[in-house]
Every structure is written in structure tokens, then in C-alpha cells.
């Protein structure tokens, strides 16, 4: 049985850990709030973009030709993997990385067949440890990152597709469902396949010079916009995941402290009892 | 004078929202002057200055590409980034311009990097042009 002093020390250290995890939980909760707000202001932009792209798609009945809309034989696949810069977020990073790693192992024989774009330090480290080349990485994004901060990454991913360096692009990240639920999503970003078309378009727009020219400008913007949107989404999910993970560890710490306090008390009781019986024993021996 | 509701939307939110009497933009096909009740039109934009004639003043905005969606009742400019004249950091734009020019000199035309540098130069120029607009 551990001594009283050991137990007391153990309780102290667990209390300190609990303090930290509790603080981290609260920080994440505040950040989550902000991330959600941020994602909300952004949707105004994507909604508009989607409206215009959808409008063109609907007006042409699928007869539009643009490399970004057409599937071509796949020689090289791009993966855009979104992770966090820090750990301590439960399964947040691990689920994404494991999934991508499995995918790569399963689909590709040689490293010429894929390119990996990584967001977040955890992801970069993961691929480095496994000797997988990272084509482009973005780490240490500021808390409220702007479109400009991720533009080079988005542009490179979309640009490589346009220059036929990669023939398809997947995006793997955790989608924010709710504060307690994040979902691993794997979406095929390019070629763009599922542009929603809104039927209730009351006005038919003219395109200048023509719809193809407009699409040429619009689609890269749209694809980059989707990447930014995914990053915002993933950021919200990260904070949510961290919040939950930290709440769990706070709860665990409390439980441990309770248990240890109990054993500390019984140890103390045992020590008192022993002392008493020693005194009584000593007194009776004198008589 | 009649006006049209105008919005400039970027990924960082709405940069501008208000009623304009006339909107002057440079589309890839040339300059466009939009008055209220214009026919529905979508056109890609160049990286350039946009002029909005409001009721009481003229607002200049540096718009970095994107496109304009015109509806008889409202006009939306969508761009990956846009700055109001007041928000432009002139020294920074000048620095960006010098940097982009330096890069262009070293790169071969036709590559992805060259295009990027060229666009950066255009952006810096658009910003400077906007910042200097309206000052005689």
C-alpha cells in the first residue's frame, strides 16, 4: 500500500493537471465560438459563388466544357489533409491521418502516383516520419486566419490541377457537426462534380464575353473558396474536439482525485488506529 | 436620382454595402458603367480599381479579380479580396510592387510562378491607383 505522503503528492499533481485541462477546455470553448462566427460570415461569400456557378450550370444543361468539370484518366492524385498545429485534441488528428495513410497504402504502389498537401504541424510531422513527401504545407496559421493566409496553398493545389500535374484532388478533414460531434469527411474537390443547381432562377443572366470565359475565372475561385471553407470548418471542429477531449480529461482527473482521496483517508485512518493500538499496547505493558 | 443596391463580398465578409448611382468596373472585356436597372449580366473582372458613385460621395475600391453579378435591382461584386480606398496601406503596396517587379525580372514567362508574380504586381498597382484616386 502506498504511503500517505505518496498519495498526497499524487493528488496534488492530479489537481494541477486538472486545472490545466480545465483552462484549456474553456479556452477552446471561447475559440470555438469565434471560429463558428467566422465560418458564418464566410458562407455569404460561398453562397453567392455557388449561386452564380449553379446559375451557369443550369443555363447550359451540362453542356459546358471546362477542365475543372471533366474527369480525366487519373495518373496522379492529390490529397489535401487538414490537421491541427497542436495535439491534445482527442482523436482529431489521428483519425484523419490514419485514414489518409490507409488510403495511400491501398491505392498507390509508388510515390509518383500522389501528392500530399498538408495543413497543420501534426500532419507534417506524421508524413515526414513515414517518408512521404509533402508538396505544400501550411503551418502556424493565425487564430483568425484570412483568405490571404491560405491562398498560396489553395492556389497551388488548384493550379497543379489546372496544369495537369494532378488529375484529381481529395480533401480530408474533420467536419464540424456540433460541439460534441465531428465527422471525418473525404470529399473529391476536383474535378468539381456536384455543383448544386437551383431551379428557381427567375432571371437568366447574360455572360460577358461568354459563359465559358466566365467559368474559366469563376471555377478556380470557387475551388479555392471551397478549400478555405473546409479550413474554417476544420478549425471549428478542432476546437470542438479539443474542448471535448479536455472536458473528458478534467472529468477523469476528478474521478482519480476522488479515488485517491478515499485511499488517502483510509490510509490515514489506518495510521491513527495503528498508533492508538501501539499506545494502548505500550500502556498495558507498563502495568 | 435612382440608385441600385450594391454589395462587395469577399471571403472575409462584406467589404461594402450600400446604394450606388453608378458603378464603374473594368471587366476582362473592357470598362463597364452600370446604372440602375441594367440587364442581368455576369462578367469576370480585371484586377483594378472600382468606382462607386454614391449619393453623397465617390467610393473607390481596389478589387482583386473576381467577377460582377448584375441584376436590375442589385449588383454584387465577388472577389477573393477587396479593399476600400481608406483601408489601403500605401507603403505596403509600394513594397509589394517593388518585390513583384524584382521577381518578374528573374522568372521565365509562361510558368505558374510568373503568372503569380504578375498578378501580385497588378494587385499592388490597383491598390496604389485606388489610394491615389480622388486626390487632385
UniProtKB/TrEMBL annotation, chain A:
Subcellular location: Cell membrane
Superkingdom: Bacteria
Keyword Ion transport in annotation: yes
Pfam families found in the cross-reference section: ATP-synt (PF00231)
SUPFAM superfamilies in the cross-refs: ATP synthase (F1-ATPase), gamma subunit (SSF52943)
GO MF annotations in UniProt: ATP binding; proton-transporting ATP synthase activity, rotational mechanism
Entries under PROSITE patterns matching the protein: ATPASE_GAMMA
Record's bilayer topology term: Peripheral membrane protein
CDD domains listed in its UniProt record: F1-ATPase_gamma
Main location class: membrane
InterPro entries for this protein: ATP_synth_F1_ATPase_gsu, ATP_synth_F1_gsu, ATP_synth_F1_gsu_CS
Cellular compartments per GO CC: plasma membrane; proton-transporting ATP synthase complex
Example GO biological process: proton motive force-driven plasma membrane ATP synthesis
Keywords for this protein: ATP synthesis, Cell membrane, CF(1), Hydrogen ion transport, Ion transport, Membrane, Transport
NCBIfam families named in the record: ATPsyn_F1gamma
Family indicated by similarity: Belongs to the ATPase gamma chain family.
HAMAP family given in the database record: ATP_synth_gamma_bact
Function: Produces ATP from ADP in the presence of a proton gradient across the membrane. The gamma chain is believed to be important in regulating ATPase activity and the flow of protons through the CF(0) complex.
Oligomeric and partner information: F-type ATPases have 2 components, CF(1) - the catalytic core - and CF(0) - the membrane proton channel. CF(1) has five subunits: alpha(3), beta(3), gamma(1), delta(1), epsilon(1). CF(0) has three main subunits: a, b and c.
Name assigned to this protein: ATP synthase gamma chain
Gene name as annotated: atpG
From TrEMBL, chain B:
UniProt keyword Zinc present: no
InterPro entries: ATP_F1_dsu/esu_C_sf, ATP_synth_F1_dsu/esu, ATP_synth_F1_dsu/esu_N, ATP_synth_F1_esu_C, ATPsynth_dsu/esu_N
Keywords attached to this entry: ATP synthesis, Cell membrane, CF(1), Coiled coil, Hydrogen ion transport, Ion transport, Membrane, Transport
GO molecular function, one term: proton-transporting ATP synthase activity, rotational mechanism
Coiled coil: 107-134
Assembly, per entry: F-type ATPases have 2 components, CF(1) - the catalytic core - and CF(0) - the membrane proton channel. CF(1) has five subunits: alpha(3), beta(3), gamma(1), delta(1), epsilon(1). CF(0) has three main subunits: a, b and c.
The protein's name: ATP synthase epsilon chain
Lineage start: Bacteria, Bacillati, Bacillota, Bacilli, Bacillales
Gene name of this polypeptide: atpC
